[in-house]
Write a structure and sequence with these properties.
- The structure holds 3 protein chains of 3 kinds.
- By secondary structure, chain A is α/β, with parallel strands linked by helices.
- Chain A has 7 helices and 5 strands.
- Chain C is α/β, with parallel strands linked by helices.
- Chain C contains 3 helices and 9 strands.
- The chains are: A alpha/beta, B alpha+beta, C alpha/beta.
- Chains in contact: A-B, A-C, B-C.
- Chains A and C meet through helix 4 of A and strand 9 of C.
């Protein structure tokens, strides 16, 4: 703790941080996301570059797991074909809740350059599994994937753990009332 | 507790049941989405059936619906590790059909970028091969260097991985002003890293134990299976299209064709295929240095072409030495602005087909090493 | 050896089975061959002393409107010469003898041509689809191919 003692300690004397249990749990979850290690196409090479020395994905707390049962989120890195779509779905279903998906690259988002004549290409991985964060690009730069990771961390930080149904209902009602207002104005 | 009863048995009475194991399509060491159906007798591989097509992106269908220049980005995405090398045979084929010559400067830039991309490809090949063997450090070292090469590509073309830089009749645009200094610097750097890699990985005792005398591919089998590139050269076959069927301006440079010699094991084993890649990095550095010396500073980078490219009716098979082997494009033109048919002869597609032949009788752990030594890219296998 | 010499030699040996030699630069010259005696011709090209085409560079299927075609690009490791063979078959009866036993590399190439064009290679030991799923319908690279609406309940078009 030598280094920490030398810093200006804002919590001097107490070492107490006030916060809700939910915040603490979400903080822990978002900073140690383990991902399912598998690559599909061109984006997988950029994904490898993110893992390697220059971009160092591990500083986000992301550690590759080769089994879907130990993974928190998966990065769909590349074109999903019809032959692969069912396997992706199986992999997603094997992951334990809560699970997240980052769709990396245009192909996984919407079919990319293969959208028109690709008879064997799935036009967007969101046709088989739900996606949380979309990263655009063909292929996305490593920085773009890191941005996507930060987005996912933010999303996890704001997630409800307790009284989920109640809060979801409240949010829905709020949204509905807002949309009612908007509709009445129009 | 009585005495232990002595049982008479012979080993031949023991029936070992064959086991079928499924590797992939999601597996860390299949280099993408390859599925291998492996039949095992204990730990020994008796049969391998590769199932491919998990990345079939309909390349040939797209070619029939795109104009000639529009095909180039799709060609990039075939072998996405070395896109520059993919573009070269395609644009050469179309230029040959049109009957145009590209300016001198363009030829040099094309050769320099092809060779740089060959270095980047071999670095990935050696890095991931090390990763399969359990060596993580060389991966970090080689990816560090590869990033510098990608920076140069990015300065020139704007893309890190997929470039769309070689156009029919020239280049997309001229290279950046500090091009020559950048490349001289990177070549020096690559040579230094190569020394480190030789010590760290290739001449490491553990690595040699795992790869020498494993997956031996005899030269005649390599020819019959259509293998090319480091897979064929590792078997002692001096087959290199840069020498055998010189294209572009490769006949102006002095370089050697590296072949496997069985330095630590038998000719044609996994280690030989990798040492060929390792020495090819050095040969590529030599070519780049010579090209930089000879390259003219001034000159156009694009030949004047009509707005719509319409090659005359005919067909051509244009091939070039990709880092993985012979990459060919069979282009058929019907006189319109869209090709009638483009067939890509994927190098990895052909090289992978030899896997069942050379992996029989080895341990299951060796199968992963053999697959890694072939250096496949699934984008090119499935297209 | 240049194409004309190879053509003359083949014509001498196989007579009517060799249809014609087409040369029209800058296109590659090719020899049109009758599909019936394809295996004999290929074996001859591979083993004859001054040809030795031991390396099959490429094998591609073609859709020629009414017919289907198969194109063979051969290369010799020793003499470093090339030749192109072509066969044409009708769409109703797309049977071509397999050259898989002659060059093992043709194994996957032929499966691909079957998968994408529906050319049936007689004598191939395992002629099944290779790129598309095993239960895929139709031959995608034929010009009249229509993209299916759905596959296993997943919508295919954009």
């Amino acid at each position: 703790m030598g280094l920490l003692n030398k810093l200006d300690d804002p919590y001097y004397g107490g070492g107490i941080i006030l916060g809700t249990l939910e915040d603490v749990l979400n903080w822990g979850r978002s900073k140690s996301d383990w991902y399912l290690q598998f690559g599909l196409a061109c984006c997988a090479i950029e994904f490898m570059a993110v893992n390697a020395s220059h971009f160092d994905f591990m500083r986000f707390g992301c550690i590759p797991r080769t089994s879907p049962r130990q993974a928190d989120f998966m990065i769909v890195s590349g074109t999903v074909t019809m032959k692969m779509a069912e396997r992706i779905k199986t992999l997603y279903e094997q992951m334990a809740e809560p699970r997240y998906v980052i769709s990396m690259g245009s192909c996984a988002n919407c079919g990319g350059p293969y959208w028109e004549h690709g008879y064997h290409v799935l036009k967007g991985v969101d046709r088989v599994i739900p996606v949380d964060v979309y990263v655009p690009g063909c292929p996305p730069r490593p920085e773009a994937l890191e941005e996507g990771m930060i987005k996912l961390q933010k999303m996890i930080n704001e997630q409800a753990i307790f009284n989920k149904r109640k809060r979801l209902r409240e949010a829905e009602e709020k949204e509905k009332s807002v949309s009612d207002v908007v509709l009445s104005q129009n | 507790m009585g005495e232990l009863k002595k049982v008479d048995f012979e080993y031949s009475q023991l029936n070992s049941e064959r086991m079928r194991l499924n590797v992939g399509p999601q597996h860390p060491s299949t280099h993408g989405v390859l599925r291998l159906e492996v039949e095992l007798d204990g730990e020994i591989v008796t049969e391998v059936v590769p199932h491919i097509g998990y990345l079939h992106r309909c390349f040939e269908k797209h070619c029939e619906n795109m104009t000639y220049p529009q095909v180039i980005p799709y060609v990039d995405r075939m072998d996405y590790i070395c896109s520059m090398n993919n573009e070269l045979p395609y644009v050469m084929g179309v230029e040959k059909m049109l009957g145009i010559e590209v300016p001198e400067k363009v030829e040099y830039i094309r050769v320099i970028f092809s060779e740089l991309n060959r270095i980047a490809n071999h670095q990935i090949a050696i890095a991931t091969f090390g990763l399969d063997a359990g060596a993580f450090t060389p991966f970090l070292y080689l990816f560090r260097d590869r990033e510098f090469i990608l920076t140069i590509f990015e300065k020139a073309s704007g893309g890190r991985l997929l470039y769309n830089y070689f156009w029919v009749g020239g280049l997309a645009h001229d290279v950046h002003p500090t091009f020559k200094e950048d490349i001289r610097w990177i070549v020096k750097r690559v040579k230094e890293t190569n020394k480190e890699i030789a010590d760290l990985l290739l001449y490491n005792k553990i690595f040699i134990e795992r790869t020498a005398n494993v997956g031996i591919l005899p030269a005649d089998v390599a020819i019959n299976y259509g293998c090319s590139g480091p897979v064929a050269r590792g078997s002692g076959l001096p087959f290199d299209l840069r020498k055998d069927a010189p294209y572009s301006i490769y006949d102006r440079f002095d370089f050697n064709v590296v072949t496997g010699r069985g330095e630590v094991g038998t000719v044609g084993d996994c280690w030989d295929r990798n040492i060929v890649r390792f020495h090819e990095i050095e040969e590529s550095c030599r070519i780049i240095e010579q090209a930089l010396e000879q390259m003219p500073d001034e000159g156009d980078v694009r030949e004047k072409l009509p707005k719509k490219i319409r090659p005359p009716q005919g067909e051509i098979y244009s091939k070039a030495e990709n880092p993985k082997g012979e990459l060919g494009f069979y282009i058929v033109s019907n006189g319109k602005d869209k090709p009638e048919r483009v067939k890509g002869r994927g190098t990895s597609f052909v090289n992978l087909s030899v896997l069942p032949e050379i992996s029989k009788g080895y341990l299951f752990a060796d199968l992963i090493m053999i697959l890694g030594s072939i250096d496949i890219v699934l984008g090119e296998v499935d297209r | 050896m240049i194409e004309q010499e190879i053509y003359n030699k083949l014509k001498e040996h196989f007579g009517d089975a060799i249809v014609e030699l087409k040369e029209a630069p800058p296109s590659d010259p090719f020899i049109q061959v009758n599909p019936e005696r394809l295996q004999d011709i290929c074996l001859y090209l591979r083993d004859e002393g001054d040809m030795l085409f031991d390396y099959l560079s490429n094998l591609s299927g073609m859709d020629l409107a009414e017919n289907l075609g198969v194109v063979y690009h051969l290369y010799s490791m020793k003499y470093k010469h090339t030749i192109v063979l072509k066969v044409t078959v009708s769409k109703e009866n797309p049977n071509v003898p397999s050259v898989e036993r002659i060059w093992r590399t043709a194994d996957w190439h032929e499966r691909e041509a079957y998968d994408l064009f529906g050319v049936i290679f007689e004598g191939h030991h395992n002629l099944i689809r290779i790129l598309n799923p095993y239960d895929w319908e139709g031959y995608p690279l034929r010009k009249d191919y229509k993209t299916p609406e759905e596959y296993h309940g997943i919508k295919v078009p954009y």
